[in-house]
Give the backbone structure.
Amino acid sequence: MIWLAVSIALMTPQCDQFIPFDVDREAFGGLTYTKGTLLTPTRLIECDYVDSRGRSFLVDNGRLVLHNPSGERRRIRYEHHFDLATELESMKCWLTSTGRGSIVGCGEDRQWTLVAEATLDPLGDQNAHMGR
């Protein structure tokens, strides 16, 4: 199953609450283009990327913005998952991030997972450029 989710937590402990949000998807040069926004009083998440879901190779390239519009320090987490048409073996991968936080990609069997997370000060943001 393909889904996008956001796990929201304060400093500690980590929260297991997920907030799925709608995205627009369309075919783009043999890949899938995804664009979506989640806006709540405590977070703004914008995603804009292409990926190779359902294909026999891995592409996950685009932009992700995590923003804390609230008056409190918050940890904001974003995840997306998709299946490929082949099993993932050893693959070279690069992920870049500007600002604070982390962005991690991993694959198991046929599923690719990308996780971006940052602890942000009030009115802070984290921009991540992902690529594989």
Observations:
- The radius of gyration is 15 Å.
- The chain has one domain: 3-131.
- DSSP finds no helices and ten strands in the chain.
